[in-house]
Every structure is written in C-alpha cells, then in structure tokens.
Specification:
With 429 residues, the chain is α+β, with helices and mostly antiparallel strands. Among the domains are: 152 residues, Rossmann fold (3-Layer(aba) Sandwich); 120 residues, no CATH class. The chain has 9 helices and 24 strands. Strands 11, 12, 15, 16, 17, 20, 21, 22, 23 and 24 form a 10-stranded mixed beta sheet that branches. A hairpin with a 4-residue loop joins strand 16 and strand 17. The longest helix is centred in the N-terminal third of the chain and has 14 residues.
C-alpha cells in the first residue's frame, strides 16, 4: 500500500455530523472526569512522520517496553474500507485497515516485538465496546493513533453528549495510568487534547472572524469542540502541522477566545514527549528535526478595535530537539550542548509579507513565522521586527519584540535554533 498521505490543508472535517457533542458545556466544566496519577507517557507528533524517523519511532517502542513492546495501532480517523475507492488495491489503498497494517509493519521494523491494528472505524463503532477488542487492548503495552479526521475518533471512541469513554477507550486510559505509552500523529495527537480541541480553520480567517464551536463546511473557518478529545494532556491546547501550515495565528486566536493561556504548536516529523500526563506536573521534551512552539498567553490581552481584532503581550518560544519544558513552572530547559546566542548579524530582518503562509499565496514559504523570529534573534541591528498577513481587509501586522525574558540559543553556532520569551503583538492596519 502507499503511505498514508498527510491531510490536505483545507480538508473539510466531518461536515454534517451531529453538533450536539460540540455545544454542550463551557470550558470550565467540559471534562469532569477524575484524572488519576499516570505513570505512563504521551508521544505527540505534529504530523507527516517519516518512515525513517528512528528517533521518534524508537522512543515510542522504548517506552512501550523495547524488544518486548506490543503496539496497538488505532486508525479510526481514516476513512473505512467502504469509503475508499482503492480499498482492493494494496498499492493505492488509504483506509483504516490498510493504514493500520502500514503502521503495524513500521513499528515491527523499528523494533517492536509485535504491533497489531485495533479494528475500529466509523463503520464499526459498536466494536469499541466489544469484549474481543477490549481484550486485544489489554494485551498491548503501547498505542499509536494515526492521522486523518479527529472527529472520527470522537465518533468511534466517545459516547454521547457527555463524551463518556467507550470500553476500549477506558481500557486505554487505564493502561496509560499503569505505564503504557500513548502516541499519535496529526489527528492522533490532536485527540489527546482536553476542552476546546481545534477542529479546523486558517490563521487569517481566524484572526479576522474569530472562532466558534463546531465543524464547518468552510474549512478556513476556525472551529473547535468544547468538550474536546480524550483529555490525556491537560496543560495546554494542541495544534499540529504548525509551521508547515502557518497555524500560529489560529492557535493564538483560539486560545484567546476560549480562555486558555497556553498552546503547544507541534511541527511536522517531530514529537513532544509528555511525562506525568494529566497531572499538574507535566514535563515535556522535544524530539526531532523541527520543533514545538509554546504560545504563552498569561499576560496577553485581546480586544477589538474599529479595524479588527488585536492581541497584546503574548509570548512565543520555539523549542528544538532535546529541549525540556516544565508545564507547572512555565520553564524551558535548553538541551545540553546548546549555547546562548550572541547575535552577530548587522543586517535588518528580511521583510515578511506572508507571516502565516497563506494558501492563497503561490510563492509562500512554510515556517514563515518561525523564520522571522529566528532572524530577529540572530541580529543585533534591531530589537523588534514586523511581518504581515498576505491577505488584506484588514491586513494584520505581527510585531516580534525582544525584551525581558527573551533568550536565544544555538546548537551549531550558525544562528538561532531555540528561542524563548519573544513578545508577540497582533493588530490590524
């Protein structure tokens, strides 16, 4: 079969599905399930996980027991075989069953003793409460949730307006509490979120129009699920494909609208490893070639002007391979071997007229927001820089400012890699 493709940037997420689950509770009461002490861990990947990423696959296998690891692969976010026109072609299929077989084979190739597809999808919702599937889950030491549409995970594994656990999800939650690892990529990482899980949208439209509960026919409209996903991670919202799709803007807007003060923006082919998940002491580590954006809104103030929405005093950190983060103290600990950066460039930060990598710009570049942040960190010619959205009506300006709490680090001496505490302001013009 072909490798599961990365989700299309403007994929419509579950149009026409029931919205009762989306509108039930306020964020403060959205998930009242008790959170036990968890000895297990999470490995959350920003999407587009490459087959040869031995660092991330190896970490999942190691945490599942190394040579004794037994990985349960759940791909219910994929379309079922009944909706795949190529279901009968092993070289072209992309559905829950063949994607499950693909990942099971990969985990075996990366050292797991066994890896099995857990046979669940939207055509077999009742099986999430079956004795046989629960027994299969009980035999596993780790789990991997594949990408696709996270609402299919809601439909398959959660029950009713209260988002009660199915028996299979309850078994996975119990395994996590007893030491299992739960990993996921793209939608499989999003579903680890608690209240206000993002359901779709683009940065510019989010800044211009705000967010609303639901899934929308317009894939650019910023939507969210108030009751959220599985609630494995508690210290912040989660977004994926962040730099590749320019999602920093939508993440900031959603957090401000829903009263959250932190977002983890996961970049592609890179993992955020979470120890003590679901407790007040979540510790996080970045693994992989890209990084994780941590958006801090504790001091941020949002408002509306005559010209549009504004955000003041947010903070942006970009953590890279080996960096650690203590969610309780809001403290980043830079990996050994990285050194404080002494800015040496004397040239101005390059102009950036597409800070959120608009789909409307045929010449746009991914990781545009991060590029400006790193360029500012690397120069001694200026202490602030501005970048703008590609779209107008209004055009939003993003101002990056060095100040108290800002620091930058280099692992190769060539420029900024890790950046912490950069102030972010957004305003229409």
């Amino acid at each position: 079969m072909r490798a599961p493709s990365a989700p299309a940037r403007r994929t419509v997420l579950a149009c026409g599905l029931a919205v009762a689950l989306l509108t039930a509770a306020s964020p403060a009461t959205a998930d009242s399930r008790p959170v036990p002490h968890r000895a297990g861990s999470l490995v959350l990947i920003g999407g587009a996980l490459k087959e040869d990423n031995t660092q991330v696959y190896g970490e999942i296998v190691k945490r599942a027991g190394g040579e004794h690891a037994r990985i349960g692969v759940i791909t219910a976010a994929s379309v079922p075989e009944s909706q795949d026109p190529h279901a009968g072609d092993p070289d072209r299929c992309s559905n829950s069953a063949c994607n499950g077989a693909y990942y099971a084979d990969l985990f075996k190739r990366h050292g797991a003793a066994d890896a099995q597809w857990i046979p669940l999808d939207i055509d077999h919702v009742a099986d999430a409460d079956s004795d046989a599937v629960v027994a299969q889950v009980e035999s596993m030491t780790g789990f991997f949730f594949g990408g696709g549409d996270q609402y299919r995970y809601v439909t398959t594994l959660l029950r009713g307006e209260e988002h009660k656990d199915s028996r299979v999800l309850a078994a996975i939650r119990a395994k996590l509490a007893r030491g299992a690892v739960v990993a996921g990529s793209s939608a499989g990482a999003q579903i680890a979120s608690g209240p206000d899980m993002v359901s779709g949208g683009e940065s510019y439209e989010g800044l211009r129009d705000g967010s609303a509960p639901g899934y929308f026919d317009d894939p650019a409209r910023l939507g969210y699920v108030p009751r959220g996903g599985f609630g494995f991670l508690r210290s912040g919202l989660v977004d994926t494909h962040t730099g590749a799709y320019g999602r920093e803007g939508r993440a900031l807007r959603l957090a401000a609208d829903t009263g959250h003060d932190r977002v983890y923006g996961l970049e592609e082919n890179t993992a955020l490893v979470v120890d003590r998940p679901g407790t007040p002491h979540e510790h996080l580590t970045v693994l992989g070639p890209q990084g994780v954006a941590v958006l801090d809104l504790r001091q941020a103030r949002a408002g509306d002007s005559a010209d549009g929405w504004t955000l003041r005093r947010a903070r942006y950190s970009h953590l890279t391979d080996g960096d650690r983060y203590d969610a309780r103290t809001w403290t980043a600990r830079v990996a050994p071997g990285k050194r404080p950066l002494a800015p040496s460039a004397t040239t101005p930060v390059p102009a950036n007229g597409d800070v959120f990598h608009s789909t409307a710009n045929p010449d746009g570049a991914p990781y545009s927001f991060r590029t400006t942040a790193r360029a500012l960190a690397s120069t001694r010619a200026q202490d602030s820089a501005t970048a703008t959205t590609y779209e107008t009506g209004p055009r939003f300006t993003v101002t990056f400012t060095k100040g108290r709490g800002f620091a930058a680090y280099s692992g190769d001496g060539a420029g900024a890699g890790t950046v912490t505490g950069l102030r972010i302001d957004i305003a229409p013009r």
